[in-house]
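HOLO CASE FILE
Compound: pyridoxal-5'-phosphate
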Amino acid sequence: MAPTSKDSISSSMEEKSKNGMATSKPRLLVGCNPLLLQMKTSIRGVMAELKAAANPAKSVISLGTGDLAIHSDYFGKRRAFGDAVAAASAHFDSYLPAFGLPSARRAVAEYITNVVRKCRISRSDPPLKVTESDVFLTVGATQALQTTLTVLASAGGNVLLPRPGFALYDSACKLAGVGCRYYDLLPSRRWEADPSQIRSLADANSLAIVVINPNNPTGAAFSSHHLCQIAEIARDLCIPIIADEVYGGMVFGGGTFVPMASFAHLAPVFTISSLSKRWMVPGWRLGWLVICDPQGILQRVREATEMIMNINPGPASVIQAAVPAILSDENEEFHANVVQLLESCVDTLFKGLKQIEALKCYSRPQGSIFVMVEIDTSRLLGIENDMDFAKQLMKEESVLVLPGFVLGCKNWVRLFFGLPNDLLMEACKRMTSFCQRRMV
Ligand SMILES: *Cc1c(COP(=O)(O)O)cnc(C)c1O
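Model generated. Tokens follow.
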């Protein structure tokens, strides 16, 4: 009889023990960081599981991960970023300074200063000055947020996070050993939060409030009034705001983008962004963290940030060296075109979703590249929850969506809409027939 794999393992172990190389004693597993084992879900893990379930007879349409580079041709000709990188690569083979290449830090400082100046809310507010020394270059926005949370972490502390949210904040908080408290983004209020809920969640151990604007996953672009309300809460609590603005400037359909740093005179702001979304090069891993602290109350935080930047690796020299060229040309035409196309993507998706009774959208996205859709499971035979919906949809129709439970929203799904119109229409068609087959 052919040996099973189990047999072959045990016979080879016996052989080894005859040679005195190993014993047959049961082995103890080597320990590891328990915090990592407690993290049961990650977006990438869930996506991998869903991708494996695709119907081989249909090409996959991904409304899952928000990677604009996949369809970058559709969004028009970008500036020749590649040329900038090629030029830079000739001169930058050495280690760079730990906080980033000075010319690149300067370019980011100028960029942020201009964005804030352009959106200045009230002429009476002091204009924000950001300089090179306020900017730290990071490996994507991801490292910027991980750095910020590690720097602010203290035993027994908690961070106020939006729900639905962005899963990396949860894992970064958990790894840093701080608690997560969730304030709700409310579909009935165009996904703005209830300021009194944020206040009621906070206590003396609260370390920061995270605000993602324009918002992933809801597509909201928060009003300056709402952002000011949050800044006032932070001021009263004497804590900073972590402003994730990776979709900064990506607004449409009547939405406007107001940078949180406009309110830095009320409470200090860590502005986080990257080249990944607006410039559509997520694989380049170039992000930044900007400390906006006109009151000068983050001196110790700044020291700690410099320390962690001295320890951690930064982005590749070649990409850093290309940053001034990439940011100096605002390339208005390209960005305006992207925004217009994103708006038409929303139109197409909304028209399609309207035909599907079991799916409900509360408000049209005015920013970012995502929308949250509620699933009425009572209308769909055999669908218990969002993961069920995502998995069976993939199995039958090869349409990939992100189940909301990974974002803290059971029975919702997040849809990425940054893809060509014909693909969006096809995705809607497939979702329509999927739901029709199960309609109660
Ligand atoms: C994509 C994304 C990030 C991560 O950006 P990278 O530059 O790819 O690391 C952070 N926050 C939000 C809200 C995002 O959507």
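CASE NOTES: DSSP finds 14 helices and 13 strands in the chain. The pocket of pyridoxal-5'-phosphate is lined by residues 140-142, 166, 212, 216, 244, 246, 274, 276, 282, 287 (CB under 6 Å).
CLOSED: yes
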